[in-house]
Design a protein that fits this description.
This protein has 112 residues and is mainly alpha-helical. It has 4 helices and no strands. Helices cover 68% and strands 0% of the residues. The C terminus is likely disordered.
């Protein structure tokens, strides 16, 4: 097992931890706190130095991952909201409900 693959389990755990602590807001970007934590992961876990191309690639990749995870979490909450409204998965009404919630502002329609 090489140095990079040994660092992956802690890296994955840190991504999950960052995601668990994050909230889905109207801004699809990563908060400044999470951006700092991502940079720390790339530096300390992956061993990249700031200014290196690999460092910036690592930061961009982890930030994109956080945004994608946040989006997936929001979609799951929207699906659960539609189910609690009595809509059945696989129906046009359910799909319309989920899409409607995804398009609504973050503070409207999302289950908390």
């Amino acid at each position: 097992m090489n140095q990079t693959s040994r660092g992956l389990p802690p890296l994955i755990a840190l991504i999950v931890m960052l995601t668990a602590c994050s909230g889905v807001g109207a801004d699809p970007g990563v908060s400044s706190e999470h951006a700092a934590q991502v940079k720390q992961i790339c530096k300390d876990v992956m061993g990249f130095s700031p200014g290196e191309a690999h460092f910036m690639g690592c930061v961009e990749s982890l930030q994109q991952t956080l945004v994608q995870i946040d989006h997936a979490d929001a979609t799951q909450r929207d699906r659960e909201t539609c189910q609690t409204r009595g809509l059945r998965i696989g129906t046009a009404e359910f799909a319309t409900c989920v899409v409607g919630l995804e398009q609504a502002p973050a503070t409207i329609g999302h289950a908390s």
